[in-house]
Automatic annotation (TrEMBL):
Reactions catalysed: Endohydrolysis of (1->4)-beta-D-xylosidic linkages in xylans
Taxonomic superkingdom: Bacteria
CBM2 domain span: 339-440
GO biological process: xylan catabolic process
Catalytic residues as annotated in Swiss-Prot or TrEMBL: E255 (nucleophile)
Signal peptide annotation: 1-21
Pfam family, one: Glyco_hydro_10
UniProt keyword annotation of Hydrolase present: yes
Keyword Cytoplasm attached: no
Protein name: Beta-xylanase
């Protein structure tokens, strides 16, 4: 290592703050603006850091997959509510709403349903029973249901699906009517993608909602999924939200993510922050935009990378749960004043992994964005007598409550856009509060 890089690296170390999210959290910022801020979640992950962030930052949860027909009734008449129940219970424990997702869709249906050969009457009965069963089970616990998901083609014609082909366009009105009967308090939505701006598809959705309202069919809101591409927030987003509001329905941004070509870098992350801020600001600008939900809050829990090879980094937190510039874009549009780490910073975050009655496993991740490190040292002070017994991927010493961990010989380098983690075992008793860590 050259003297210059050592000095440059050390200067960054001294400047680097520990990773922290905005204070107050997004859910409180949203409340102040009359907005519910949500995330899609995977039930099995709702522990540890993932659960902490999901509970602290968001006031609404949407099961990413757990309430889809294929999840809840994998074999006809045989139900599995485990994950859906778990998410609803977590939401109740954290004073959060649940958006039910989704009752009528062409995708993620059980094979017994899609492979069956049904008359129109049988299909209608199956759908009615499904809606009765699922909406009825969670009656009073779901703020809003995505009753019908993705009914349109890009040109605004109806998508050819099991439902449209078997039941005609009125499957939509019938599904809404059945859902209302099963839970009169739940808000009922139609949800689709590529309907964020004013275009043929969103105009078809607009015309459908208008005609449903004219007919007295229960419809309370439209969901704009908002699976967006970096730098491509539609310029007509606010105008489009406003025209639905003027029709007399609520609007929700239901599945926001903004994908980029990998690898991410500080320029792309700054653009992504601007994009998240623009979407949030459009919702803030229209009173009837009631909910803004991200489709997974961490890059480690996103559908994007498996669906669009080479694309990703689409959510507000990185894969190590450090808030990205995008997080602060949302916070700023909600009136938050917390400032993100300065551009070109490396940060350290501490999390508790598994914990048992006498010990626990901890993890510290050092992440860099717009900067890089050639060596690092992380320090913290324990507040409740915790004692490190063993560390890996770092050399740790503890003197009293003061802990200091430096890189091992092989992991001092943290590249721009990259991260390095180390772990340790420690003992605890009484309580195990998370300390504030300092990089440098
Ligand atoms: O659960 C199985 C697991 O057992 C198996 O090992 C694994 C192997 O592929 O697959 C797992 O299922 C996957 C499931 O997500 C749960 O992770 C499916 O393959 C995968 O196709 C499924 O993808 C979901 C996708 O909908 C399906 O279309 C995504 O997680 C989910 O985020 C996504 O969400 C949709 C919304 O519902 C509607 N709008 C678009 C949005 C993105 O596609």
């Amino acid at each position: 290592m050259s003297l210059t890089s050592l000095v440059a690296g050390f200067a960054l170390l001294l400047a680097a703050p520990a990773a922290h999210a905005a204070d107050p959290p997004l859910r409180d910022l949203g409340t102040a603006k009359g907005k519910v801020i949500g995330t899609a979640v995977t039930g099995s992950k709702l522990t540890g850091t993932y659960g902490d962030i999901a509970g602290a930052q968001f006031s609404s949860l949407t099961p990413g997959n757990a309430m889809k027909w294929g999840s809840v009734e994998p074999a006809q008449g045989s139900f599995n509510w485990t994950e859906a129940d778990q998410i609803v219970a977590f939401a109740q424990a954290h004073n959060q709403q649940v958006r039910g997702h989704t009752l009528v869709w062409h995708s993620q249906n059980p094979s017994w349903l899609t492979n069956g050969s049904w008359t129109s009457a049988q299909l209608g009965t199956l759908l009615q029973n499904h809606i009765n069963t699922e909406v009825g089970r969670y009656q009073g616990k779901i703020a809003a249901w995505d009753v019908v998901n993705e009914p349109f083609n890009e040109d605004g014609t109806y998508r050819s699906t099991l439902w449209y082909n078997g039941l005609g366009a009125d499957y939509i009105a019938n599904a809404l009517t059945w859902a209302r009967a099963a839970d009169p308090a739940a808000k009922l939505y139609i949800n689709d993608y590529n309907v964020e701006g004013v275009n043929a598809k969103s105009t078809a959705l607009y015309n459908l909602v208008k005609s449903l309202k004219d007919r007295g069919v229960p419809i309370d809101g439209v969901g704009l999924q908002a699976h967006l591409i970096l730098g491509q927030v539609p310029s007509t987003l606010q105008q489009n939200i406003q025209r639905f509001a003027d029709l007399g329905v609520d609007v929700a941004i239901t599945e926001l993510d903004i994908r980029m070509t990998l690898p991410s870098d500080s320029t792309k992350l700054a653009q992504q922050k601007a994009d998240y801020k623009a979407v949030t600001a459009a919702c803030v600008a229209v009173a009837r935009c009631v909910n803004l939900t991200v489709w997974g809050f961490t890059d480690s829990d996103s559908w994007v990378e498996s669906t669009f090879p080479g694309q990703g980094a689409a959510t507000p937190y990185d894969a190590n749960y450090a808030p990205k510039p995008a997080y602060y874009g949302i916070a700023e549009a909600l009136g938050g004043t917390s400032t993100p780490p300065p551009t070109g910073a490396c940060t350290a975050s501490y999390s508790v992994g598994s914990q048992w009655n006498t010990g626990f496993t901890g993890n510290v991740t050092i992440s860099c964005s717009g900067a890089s490190l050639s060596s690092w040292k992380v320090t913290w002070t324990y507040g409740a007598g915790q004692q490190i017994t063993q560390a890996w991927n770092a050399t740790c010493t503890q003197s009293g409550a003061a802990v200091s961990c430096a890189n091992a010989s092989y992991n001092g380098t943290v590249p721009d856009g990259g991260s390095v983690s180390f772990g340790f075992n420690a003992s605890w008793s009484g309580s195990n509060p998370v300390p504030t860590v300092t990089l440098g």
